[in-house]
Amino acid sequence: MVEDGERVLSSIVASQLDIHGKYGGVVPELASREHLRAVVPVVREALQRAGCALGEVDAIAVTQGPGLVGSLLVGITYAKGLALASGLPLIAVNHVEGHIHAVIMEAKQSGHPVEYPAVALVVSGGHTHLFLVNGDGTYRLLGKTRDDAAGEAFDKVGRLLGFGYPGGPVIDALAPYGNPKAVRFTLAKMKGNTTDFSFSGLKTAVLRWFEARDMAAELEGRKALLCETPRPSVEEWLAVTPKTTLDLLASFQRTVVEELTRRIAGCVEEAGAQTVIISGGVACNLGLRAAAVPRVTGARVLFPTPRLSTDNAAMIGAAAFPKLLRQEFAGFDLAPRASMPLA
Ligand code: KG4
Ligand code: ZN
User: Which ligand lies nearest to the CA atom of residue 148 in the structure?
Assistant: First the structure.
């Protein structure tokens, strides 16, 4: 529940990490089934925590895409039902725009709103996209990944090395224990749009590093740990991870962070941006948070608080607010979109 696009009255997240973790990644069928199970209690709890009755709500915002169609369909169908029963208008929101609005909302709330133009990096399991955000709420795509998203690269490396799913938070937590300069990775030079990203070469380089070593005993140790506890502590991971692997993780993370911040800095300079918005699950990364501010000159760098960095409904409510003001409502023919470009 969000008020005036700037105050989070309640934010309820039903995490599916424990369910998908067993399979090493998101299983679409399980995701939609869990959405179906969670949607009613989550909405009820959101209203309760906000101390609000449905009658006090102005509109119902729902994610139209991009994403897994099954999960989107559950949300859209439920939102339509709620809108029909309550007579409230329905607002369709782009998931990526939601990530950007998590930051716009928090900046507004802090009393220091985002100044435009802004450069926004949405970096998650499905996206590594750079946008120019204008004050009138329009977006221009500046660059995107040509293969894996940064979060996907974190997850694939994590899975390869036996750290379970999702890999991002574990790699982030272990990276400070390794030497980030121990392994030198070179990233492919971009032909065409030099603001694009590519992480598949880095993923292959990690695979080569892995294949050149006998990792069997080490992997066995981590597998046994994951069987004991689905979410081990840093100390538990450190007990089953030798220094060479910690060095690899630190070097991998440094390479991703360097690539992301280099592109941001270039875009800020070119666009004369006043603000940098970094959002999406990977925006939780402490290495990225530490590196971005010193790397960017001439613009204020903003991250959402971690609870609003990963997927949540409050950011969708925040992105819906300008649409509410413009009375930009969706019809009951609203359909999910697996792919839904923002610009
Ligand atoms: O935005 P999000 O919750 O869902 C998508 O829209 O994809 O992002 C999830 C992604 C996963 O790939 C996860 O590994 C990554 O964000 N992630 C991180 C961290 N926390 C989450 N990656 C690096 N460092 C982190 N601390
Ligand atoms: Zn997301």
Answer: 1
pLDDT for 176 equals 98
pLDDT of residue 3: 96
Pocket test for ligand 1, best of 284, 286, 307 (most atoms within 8 A of CB): 284
Q: Whose CA is nearest to atom 3 of ligand 1?
A: 310
Pair 275, 114: CB distance under 8 Å: yes
Q: What is the pTM of this model?
A: 0.95
Q: What is the pLDDT of residues 1-17, one digit of tens each?
A: 999 999 999 999 998 88
Q: Which atom of ligand 1 is nearest the CA belonging to 149?
A: 12
pLDDT of residue 25: 85
282 CA to centre of ligand 1 in angstroms? 4
Q: How far apart are CA 107 and CA 152, in angstroms?
A: 28
Percent of the chain surpassing pLDDT 90: 91
| Ligand 1 atom, smallest distance to 154 CA | 14
Tell me, using a 6 A CB cutoff, whether residue 148 lines ligand 1: no
The Cβ of residue 292 has, within 10 Å, a number of other Cβ atoms equal to 22
pLDDT at 218: 96
Ligand 1 atom nearest 286 alpha carbon = 26
Query: Which residue numbers in the chain have pLDDT < 50?
Result: none
Query: For residue 322, what are its two tokens?
Result: 């300008």
Q: Which two tokens stand for residue 248?
A: 């690899």
Q: Do 324 and 296 meet the contact criterion of CB atoms below 8 Å apart?
A: no
Would you state the structure tokens that stand for residue 328, as one six-digit string? 């930009």
One-letter amino acid for residue 292 of the chain: A
Query: So what's the pLDDT on residue 17?
Result: 85
Q: Which atom of ligand 1 is nearest to the CA of 95?
A: 6
Q: Beta strand pairing status for 118-123 and 128-133?
A: antiparallel
What pLDDT is recorded for position 190?
Answer: 75
For ligand 1, whether the C-beta of 287 sits within 6 Å is no
Exposed (0-12), middle (13-18) or buried (19+): which is 17, by Cβ within 10 Å? middle
Cα 151 to ligand 1 centre (Å): 5
Q: Assess whether the C-beta atom of 336 lies below 6 angstroms from ligand 1.
A: no
pLDDT at residue 21 in the model: 84
